[in-house]
Amino acid sequence: MLNFQNITSERLGSHALDLEGALSDHAARLEQAQGALLDRFRAGGDPYLGWMDLPRGEVLGDVLALRDRLAGHYDDLIVLGIGGSSLGGLTLTTALQHPFHNSLASRPGMRVHFIDNVDGDVIEGLLEVLDARRTLVNVISKSGTTTETMAAYLSCKAWLQAQVGEKYKAQIIATTDPQKGILRPLAEREGYATLPVPPTVGGRFSVLSAVGLLPAALGGIDVEALLRGARRAMEHFERSAAHNEILQSALVQHLYGEQGKNITVFMPYSTRLRFLSDWYAQLWAESLGKNRQRDGGSARVGTTPVKAVGTTDQHSQVQLYREGPQDKLVVFVKVEQADRGALIPNAEPDENEMNYLGNKPYQTLMNAELHATAYALLDAGQPNYTISLPRIDAEHLGELLQFLMLQTAVAGELLNINAFDQPGVELGKVLTYALMGRPGFDEQRAQLEAEGITL
Amino acid sequence: MLNFQNITSERLGSHALDLEGALSDHAARLEQAQGALLDRFRAGGDPYLGWMDLPRGEVLGDVLALRDRLAGHYDDLIVLGIGGSSLGGLTLTTALQHPFHNSLASRPGMRVHFIDNVDGDVIEGLLEVLDARRTLVNVISKSGTTTETMAAYLSCKAWLQAQVGEKYKAQIIATTDPQKGILRPLAEREGYATLPVPPTVGGRFSVLSAVGLLPAALGGIDVEALLRGARRAMEHFERSAAHNEILQSALVQHLYGEQGKNITVFMPYSTRLRFLSDWYAQLWAESLGKNRQRDGGSARVGTTPVKAVGTTDQHSQVQLYREGPQDKLVVFVKVEQADRGALIPNAEPDENEMNYLGNKPYQTLMNAELHATAYALLDAGQPNYTISLPRIDAEHLGELLQFLMLQTAVAGELLNINAFDQPGVELGKVLTYALMGRPGFDEQRAQLEAEGITL
């Protein structure tokens, strides 16, 4: 199991949360949140909790069948998706493929490219370097109305059509709602292979659905191990608060938020986990950044996630974290063991200032820096905790992802909000439609023009 | 010139700063800050302001000579550096090279790889895919004592030695202090080519020194244009406050900081500018995150930068920015014109929900989303401003980088702090030495052991 180390409470009492005391004060509330989530999930039919069922792997057979049919016939996969439709796959491939997978002469899986923006220079640039005959496109949108994704889809489809003719239909896979939306009928009309996004799974909770599993599987990743790890997190989540690191870490987050710390830094010490920070930032921000309407009043809640990577950002952010305002909780992710066990070479004898590094594992230096930074931040009154994983493999990463989703869901319960919707993004969408001249949005367009906002 | 649009003050008065009023209140203070910086710079000998002199391009001849000597003989460049020694080069190559430069069959410059961590799996992974006979290594460290960089240097040197023998000496370039530190004598002993980091230029202000210029030049970027743009920002900086967008934007940042907004989101609408966010985050955090000791009291100052990319992070962060706490100032960067002018293809007639996109430029959609998001955030009481650049080329990027460095320097003056040092990172370094068993740090090691912190 992952090891949640509440460094904060163990050391430097003055800045520390007394976790044992807090647990005894809040165990009932934590177990109430846990019970609420588990009861709703087990009762079935909850509109939001489908992600708790994903570790069972209902879609696994379809994903593996598609992989087995396609593997060997294609070199490149373009994933079209934005937000939750890309960050999961990006996290998995960056963490679990060879760090320079795309440059390997012989690869155990496809190269996976993510188009997650409407940057025409980047989209055209990618199509310029790929061979259309050897490229698959996976378009991912639950509704099919995601503007950014569907624009890129039109470009990729036109490119395939121009290069391979009617065969393009065999090279596009649509991952979308099993019934609703416009991408499903479009895919069926065109004859694309399809995979489902369960209606009860939101984008930021979809990494272990076909959304994340297909790109991972085509990229050569052991997706069964991912799910096995996630199931372990689900088992852990059933424990009582005293033995439940998901509940405990959610409580730490919650209490520091209540103390007014409005920033949550997420800082894995691993270059391979750099996109885990992006994935977590979406999960945390979109789930918990809410205008809570309760009891006749409203409150704007949610801490702002800051993405970081150790050791790299020690040379970018730690000056601020040490000396700047005490407005942060820092979450470290530690990797106990590197895959290769690479050693730092011995320095020449006269390079005496480097001698102390010689013949020590890189991972020892990495974790020395993590411990040193955690301590230095505590010394400056900046609390932090560490989640350790034994190594970066599919099983432990699957466990960590499910751990963090469960932690976020519990944090939502503690805040008394719905952690699974995102009503705040609607206005931006509507205004974009208005500015782009979509029929039906004349009123909003007139309003923007009156404010002097035009393209 | 770049166009600083204080959207905030033009629209939606209720949440807006009255820029004209604020300017007349603060013009004297702004011009005092401007004068202080310019006077210190012009007087010469200031220990921190060497970056204001970099646009003159004193090192340009040496950089171009090195490029001309090496170009064509090598395919890959590994840059070893962390923080300010990598983020500038990374920003330049990501923005200005072809978006998939490393996959092009024929390239106008080398592939540039940045090693900015002690992740042994990544370092070994990179060396596995490169051809040592065709690879240069640029080791960048002002002092030569940057642990992370020097560890990676030992690995790269050992790899080159094993593969090409004594020729390795011609394949390593050291960018370091012209006199001091341990890398300079090491490089001279080994016979490496060297370039200087002026002693008066800190890492986060070094992008237009040899630190950023050499990787850019070897990557095929027009470094003369970069400097030309930076000189334009220097000229602009001399204007009076009423016509000086650097001073005005620094004032906006400062006033919102004073109002208690402790988060600065930096959000270019461009995938190619994604590392500009990382570069800016370091510049802002390390310069302004300070424990100010003045007049017998102390104050922890500095807002926390949050890296974002539009449109991508609309699907990750905007829910929080719209509905969560009103604790943010958002800085957008808008690109007026894309390089390729790519169009979104027409949809099939029956794909009616996508028809409105057909035949419109991607960049129109990109900027519609920026305007829509800026407006939607203002509607939610989250102020923002936009910096526009006509296009992403070397000249405008050089101008933007110098603009942001000047803005940060002015913000430091307004906060009454030294924006150019980083005393807060020292403890973490010392504790790392202690944990790694470096001689001379026994006392700290004993202290850590007493606290239960060991590896």
From TrEMBL, chains A, B:
Which Pfam families does the record match to this protein?
PGI
Q: Where in the cell is it found?
A: Cytoplasm
Q: Which residues form the signal peptide?
A: none
PROSITE patterns registered for this protein in UniProt: P_GLUCOSE_ISOMERASE_2, P_GLUCOSE_ISOMERASE_3
Q: Which residues form the active site?
A: E286 (proton donor), H315, K429
Q: What are the GO BP annotations of this UniProt entry?
A: gluconeogenesis; glucose 6-phosphate metabolic process; glycolytic process
Q: Which reaction does it catalyse?
A: alpha-D-glucose 6-phosphate = beta-D-fructose 6-phosphate
Which leading EC class covers this enzyme? isomerase
| Chief location bin | cytoplasm
Q: What is its EC number?
A: 5.3.1.9
**Keywords of this entry:** Cytoplasm, Gluconeogenesis, Glycolysis, Isomerase
GO CC annotations on file: cytosol
Molecular function terms from GO: carbohydrate derivative binding; glucose-6-phosphate isomerase activity; monosaccharide binding
* Pathway assigned in UniProt: Carbohydrate degradation; glycolysis; D-glyceraldehyde 3-phosphate and glycerone phosphate from D-glucose: step 2/4; Carbohydrate biosynthesis; gluconeogenesis
InterPro entries xref list: G6P_Isomerase, G6P_Isomerase_C, Phosphoglucose_isomerase_CS, SIS_dom_sf, SIS_PGI_1, SIS_PGI_2
Q: Which HAMAP family match?
A: G6P_isomerase
Protein family (similarity comment):
Belongs to the GPI family.
The protein's role, per its UniProt record: Catalyzes the reversible isomerization of glucose-6-phosphate to fructose-6-phosphate.
According to UniProt, the name of this protein is Glucose-6-phosphate isomerase
